[in-house]
Automatic annotation (TrEMBL):
Superkingdom as given in the UniProt entry: Bacteria
Keywords assigned: ATP-binding, Kinase, Nucleotide-binding, Serine/threonine-protein kinase, Transferase
Residue intervals of the Histidine kinase/HSP90-like ATPase domain: 11-140
Name of the featured protein: Serine-protein kinase RsbW
Pfam families given in the database record: HATPase_c_2
EC identifiers of the protein: 2.7.11.1
Species in which this protein is naturally found: Halolactibacillus miurensis
Family, as annotated: Belongs to the anti-sigma-factor family.
GO function term, MF aspect, one: sigma factor antagonist activity
InterPro entries: Anti-sigma-factor_SerPK (IPR050267), HATPase_C_sf (IPR036890), HATPase_dom (IPR003594), RsbW (IPR010193)
Catalytically driven reaction(s): L-seryl-[protein] + ATP = O-phospho-L-seryl-[protein] + ADP + H(+); L-threonyl-[protein] + ATP = O-phospho-L-threonyl-[protein] + ADP + H(+)
Keyword ATP-binding: yes
Gene, per the UniProt record: rsbW
């Protein structure tokens, strides 16, 4: 079994807490060694997922919770955003998620699901589980210490 650290946060489903999650993912990703650009991508993606959850999951006065989980692996960061507050059973969530396909009718993922296109563009893998509330599972791979394929800069190799 692959070793990883797991961090779980529960927040009120209110837009003003999106900033708290942005700061959290920034701190976690920075500690893991992600590049500045990757951290910015993570912040935008998690903001979109969180905003989607806070905007669409609950009625105005319902006062629900959003649960955010971070799986810190040696080679990647997995982020889960769930709009129904409960704790994650990680293995169960992973068995039940399926890949996000752009062909899925957007209504299936609530109106305002345009954020998912953006999340899909910014992350290495996006999976969705929507049988009870919606869980968005996003994966960002850590860059390896090799010559950058996409650009001219050479990162330091050990």
């Amino acid at each position: 079994m692959e070793h990883f650290d797991f961090i779980e946060m529960k927040l009120p489903a209110k837009p003003e807490y999106v900033g708290v999650i942005r700061l959290s993912v920034s701190g976690i990703a920075n500690r893991m060694g992600f590049t500045y650009e990757d951290i910015e991508d993570l912040k935008v993606a998690i903001s979109e997922a969180m905003t989607n959850a806070t905007t669409h999951a609950y009625e105005e006065n319902e006062g629900g919770e959003v649960t955010v989980g971070f799986g810190l692996y040696r080679d990647r960061l997995e982020v889960m955003v769930a709009d129904h507050g409960g704790s994650f059973n990680l293995s169960e969530v992973k068995q039940q998620t399926g890949p996000y396909r752009q062909s899925e009718p957007i209504e299936n993922l609530r109106e305002g699901g345009f954020g998912l296109f953006l999340i899909d563009a910014l992350m290495d893998k996006v999976e969705i589980k929507s049988d009870y509330g919606v869980i968005v599972l996003m994966t960002k791979n850590l860059p390896t210490n090799e010559v950058g394929i996409d650009d001219d800069q050479i990162s330091t190799s050990q």
